[in-house]
Amino acid sequence: MRGARILSVGSAVPNLSINNHKISEIVETSDEWIVTRTGIKERRILTGVNKSVVDLAALASIRALKKISMKPKDIDLIILATSSPNDLFGSASQLQHQIGANKAAAFDLTAACSGFVLGVVTASQFIQNGSYNNILVVGADVLSKWTNWSDRSTCILFGDGAGAAIIQSCSKRQNGILGFQLNTDGQKSDQLSIAYRNNVLADAKWPTSKGEFEYIHMNGKEVYKFAVSKVPSSILDCLDSLKISVQDVNWMLLHQANERILNAVAEKLGITSDKIIANLRKYGNTSAASIPLALDEALQQSKINKNDIIVMAGFGAGLTWATVVIQWKC
Ligand code: COA
Predict the structure, then answer these.
(1) Where does it live in the cell (predicted)?
(2) Which of 58, 108, 164, 277 shows its CA 20 to 30 Å from the CA of 247?
């Protein structure tokens, strides 16, 4: 088995920033309520009819490639984690074309806010078994397109963004993707969803239907309880399997859903607040983009050092939750 490590990270967010005061002009809420319950102050929203998740994903990818002077044609595989594609058949091929990675195979991965972690784990399997050398994993979402802007319990939470990581093969000694834990509880899929509503066409010649997707629906209290109870045990199981103690963890990088969730998980694990990577104050919950977006920012701030142990955990719709423990090798 070969090793795999993250070589470079890039990110992109739209220019338009909507702060809590602006949101309080469209729904009955306040900056104080939103900050106290979630920690979010503002979020970025993609505008323009011709702009899509692929544009953000492409910009994040190009930034990641530029940092290591890698050419798009050197990418073997693209995994685009998104729940807000341009095309239900998949958007990874559009990304492949837009960045000129014409030698890469490309596919979408749908796992909501766990998508980036699942993408990293999937990439590491392809690399460790010798199938591919250079894999681009992108987490990108524009959930603003599926937000009901008159529902104050959800429209305060989400923002748009993209984060990209280039994962490369290396020697076993240099391996940086140490282990993972993946979980799904499909029985609770209705707690957080963008459901498809089927309408039977009465005047059709044979039984047929045409439907549409609804807005984001969420049971906030249940999702909160789920995250705070399931994520710590997933992290602990993963660390235990690797014989790494919580004290050896340098950084905890959770899906940026809610500051209270981040703090509660850290407290349960006995991780001090100075080890939490958080930027949701500025971007809100960017779904599959949130972890690589925060990772890119932490790297730009030179927080992360060589050989640091980073616990990354995504959680959300599905319900899914996923942990990957990495060691920074660059
Ligand atoms: N502004 C003001 N009041 C609001 C509000 C808002 N934006 N949204 C809800 N409220 C009101 C409710 O109507 C309710 O009023 P009532 O008591 O008169 O009925 C009250 O605030 C409490 O609502 P509740 O839903 O119980 O709030 P909460 O403390 O659970 O906080 C969330 C709501 C959404 C912030 C919280 O449940 C949460 O963060 N859950 C996790 C969501 C998440 O992270 N999802 C993504 C995971 S990937």
Answers:
(1) Cytoplasm
(2) 164
